[in-house]
C-alpha cells in the first residue's frame, strides 16, 4: 500500500516538474553531486572490509600481504585448513541450535506476556508492565555474575540448556509485542468470544496469527542477537566442542595471527550465513529495525 | 472486588496468569534474583573458589574501585569511547539517512550496504579490522603514501582505542540510519514543498526542518548509543585477546568487571564495578529524559 502510494506521488511530481524551473534552483547540481559522493562513498566504506577480507580468505598464505589483485591463484585452502584444524561444523551446529531455541523461546514467552499485558485486565497487570519497563534499564552486566554462579551451581556450564535458557525472554521484545496487541481492534476478539472461544484460544487462534509483523521482527532480532552473542557464550563454554561460532573464532584468532587468510576465512564462516539470511529477508530486517527503534 | 465472581472474568484472569507465568518466572530467576544477589555481593569480598570464607566488608569494594588505577583507566577509556563514538555515529547516520531518503537510483542497494555491517558479529568485525589495520595492512599502506609511519593499530596503546571506535561506528551507523529513516517517513512532504516555495535550499531545509523534526528520534538514537557504548566489551576483548591491553589501552568497565569476576574470581569486586556502571547508565537516562522533557515543554 505505502509503496504504491509513493510511486504514484513521484509520478505525479515528475509530471508537474517540467512546467516550472527545478525547485531547488541554482544549488541543484552541486547538491546532487554531493549526495551521490556521500551515498557511493559510504557504501564503499561499508562494503570494502567485507570484500577485502573475502578476497584475502581466498588467497594463498604466501601472497596475503601482496597488494595486487591477481585472481588466478585463488584457492579454498584457508577454508579447508580451518575446517580440518577446528571443529567448525560442530560450532555451526551449536550456534544454529542455540539460536533456534532462543528464538522459539522468545516468540512464545514474549508474545504470551505481551498479549496478556495488552488485552486482559487482571490484578497486578500495571505492576508487571512497569516492571518490564524498569528492567529494560538494567544493563546485562549486573546480572551476569550471579547468573553465571547460578548456572555453574546447576551444572549448566558447557550445556545447551545453559546457553539457551538465560536468553529466552527479553523485556524489550515483550514491550514490542504489547504495543502491537494494544492496537488490535477489540471487535476481532469480541467476535471470537461470541463464537465461544476462551481467552487462551483467542490468543492462540486469533491474536497470535495476526501478529506476523512484530513476530517476524522479533525472530530476526532474537536470531541475530543469539548468533552474534559473544560475552555469555564465551563465559559459559570452556570445552571446545561446546563453543558457538563467535567463541570459537575468537579463540583461534590468537593462534592464527600470522595466517590472515585463515583468520579471514574464519570471519567469513561466521558472517556469511548471517549475511545470506539478511539478503533473503532484508525487507523484514529493514522495516523491523526501523519499527523497533520507533517504539520508545 | 465482585467483578472476579463473574465466571468469564475469572476465566480471563486465570488465562492471564498462565500467559505471564513464564515471563514472571524468568524475571524472578534471571533478573530480580540476580540483581539483589549482585547488590549483596558488592558488599562482600566473595571469592568464587572459597565462598564459605566470604565476609561483609561494607563499602570497601566501592572505595577500592575508585583507588584502583586500572578501574580509573577503564572509566576514562569507556567515557572517551562513548564521548567520541556517540556523536560521530549519530551525525553520520543522520546525514546518510537524509541522503538515502532522496529519490536516487539503487535506494535498496544503499540501505542493504549500510546495514550489512550491523548484521555482522563483533568478533568477525574485529578480525577483519585487525587485518586491515595491521602494520602491513591496507590502511597503513594507504597512509604511508602520505608519509605516515606504519603502526600496528591494535598493538599500539595510542591507536588501540581509536581502532575500537572506528569498528563501533562502522558497525552501528546502519542501524541508526534505519531509525532516522523511519522518523523521516513521518515528516510530511508538504513541509519541504512549502520550504521550496520560500526558496530555502536543501542545506537550509536540512537544518531548519529535518534536524528539529527528528529531535525525538535523535534523542532515542543518542540514548541507545550511550547505553551501547558504555557496555562495550566484544571489540575490546577480541582486539586485546581478553587482556584489555596494550597497557590497559582497551580496558573498558565491562571488560574490567569480567576480568575481576571471572579471571580473579573476585565476584564482589566485579559486582561493585557492575553497579557503578548501572548508576552511570541510569543517571544518563534520567538526565536525558529531563532534558528532553524540558525541551519539549519550551
How do you describe this structure in short?
With about 300 residues, chain A is mainly alpha-helical. In chain A, about 75% of the residues lie in helices and about 0% in strands. Chain B has about 300 residues and is mainly alpha-helical.
Properties at a glance:
heterodimer; A: 296 residues; mainly alpha; MetI-like fold; 15 helices; B: 298 residues; 2 domains; 13 helices; globular
Descriptive overview:
- The complex is a heterodimer of chains A (296) and B (298).
- Chain A is mainly α and 296 residues long.
- Chain A folds into 2 domains: 25-80; 82-294, MetI-like (MetI-like fold), CATH 1.10.3720.10.
- Helix content of chain A is 73%, strand content 0%.
- Chain A contains 15 helices and no strands.
- The longest helix of chain A has 32 residues, at 88-119.
- Chain B has 2 domains: 2-41; 60-297, MetI-like (MetI-like fold), CATH 1.10.3720.10.
- Chain B is 72% helix and 0% strand.
- The longest helix of chain B has 35 residues, at 7-41.
- Chain B starts with 6 loop residues before the first helix and ends with a helix.
- At the A-B interface, helix 2, helix 4, helix 5, helix 6 and helix 10 of A face helix 1, helix 3, helix 4, helix 5 and helix 7 of B.
Give the secondary structure arrangement, pairings included.
The complex is a heterodimer of chains A (296) and B (298).
Chain A: H1 2-16, H2 28-57, H3 77-85, H4 88-119, H5 125-135, H6 140-153, H7 160-164, H8 171-182, H9 186-194, H10 199-210, H11 212-228, H12 231-236, H13 245-253, H14 260-280, H15 282-294
Helix pairs in contact in A: 2-14, 3-14, 4-8, 4-11, 5-8, 9-10, 11-15, 13-14
Chain B: H1 7-41, H2 60-65, H3 69-100, H4 107-119, H5 122-132, H6 138-144, H7 160-185, H8 189-197, H9 202-213, H10 215-230, H11 234-239, H12 253-263, H13 267-297
Helix pairs in contact in B: 1-13, 3-7, 3-10, 4-7, 5-7, 7-10, 10-13, 12-13
